[in-house]
Structures are given as structure tokens and as C-alpha cells.
Fold:
Amino acid sequence: MAQSSSTMVIDLVPGTIDAAALEAAVADGAAGAICVFHGVTRNQHLGRAVTHLEYEAYPAMALPALRAIAAEIAERWPGARVAMVHRLGRVLVGEASVVIAVSTPHRAEAFAACRHAIDSLKTQVPIWKKEFWADGSAWVEGTPLAGPPAAS
Amino acid sequence: MQVHVRLFAAYREIAGTDSLQLELGPDATVGELWGRLATRHLGLVPHQPAAAVNATMAPLSALLRDGDEVAFLPPVSGG
Structure:
């Protein structure tokens, strides 16, 4: 089947991410590798016990930004198929806040493209994370979004 | 003119709301709108937001039009 943006699974969801569905979405007879990344809530940050995280997004921009990352990957790694789902709301320790699946003809590209996807997501998509401890909470220091292209 | 403001994450908490309607004079810019918000909510003053108008990134110098949706976006931390 020809790769097209319409085959890409991109979503923001309130509950548990169905990683198997993402893997199935990128499965392809032409693929020699499927790389699946789970970003998971860790039980501590800088020595402080974390109870859970809470995520919020601006979907009107976050979904197009995720699609743009997937499109960039499809262009840079020919034959790549990408699925990316980020969770919103409360995410407990051990649960995935984001799952990314990438299939490519060979394994080196699958690892590289999957890493590129998560690295790009962290700096280019309007999603925010608040960290909760037993005795408080704070928004995680993030990366400023790049501004608009300079006026021509 | 009226604009619709969207606030997220830390900005939302400082302002105590995730959205509001504001009446602005003609030729108001994104930066002037942020200034208005910061005079109401002093906790916003130290922040340098990225901004989007109608879901497209925009500079603080961008001119606003009646009915625009202006989002102020703190540094992002997804993943």
C-alpha cells in the first residue's frame, strides 16, 4: 500500500494508549523493522518522589504539529510509516504518556526515525506536563516554541 | 474589536482561567494584548510567551483583527 498522510495514526487521548493498535497501524509488508517507543512516567525526578503527571495540550495546534513531524519523517526516511499518540490528563507512574511506532524497510532507519519523532515532539508540539509529588506540584520547565518564519 | 484569548498550563493557572474575551482598540497587537493581561495578572509579567493567532504562530508585533483567537503558549514539555 502506498504511504500517504491519510494512513498515519495521530491522536491525543484521555485514557490508556493502545500501543498494539499503533504497532498494527504501521505494519506493512515492505517493512523490515518496527520500532515502538513508550514514554513512561518515572517514579522520581531530581531525587523527588513523583506520584503522577498531568498533561494538557492545545489540540488545534498540537495535532497539526504531530502530523507535520510524521510527514517530515515520511519524507526523510522513504517508506517510513508513523503513528504517534499522546495522552492528556493524569498519567500514573509506570503508565505511558506517549507511544510512537515507526516502521521502515530496515532497522537503522526505524531507530533513527523513532528517536527523531520523540525528540521533535518534545520541542515542537504544544503539550505541557505538570509534575506532582506527595507535597506539591510544578509545571515542568519546557522548551520555548520557535516563532513564526520571518516575514518575507 | 473583540478577541478570544486562550491560556495554557502555567499561564492558565496564573490567570485563573483558560479562556476569556477581551475588547481591544483598533490596531492592537499580540504584544499589547499580552501587556493588558499582565497588568491584570502580575504573575504573567516575568514570562515571555510564544503566541499563536488562529492556531498559527505569530510574532508579538502581529496586528489583531476582530474575532481572532489568540493563544499564549508557555515553553512546551510534552513526552
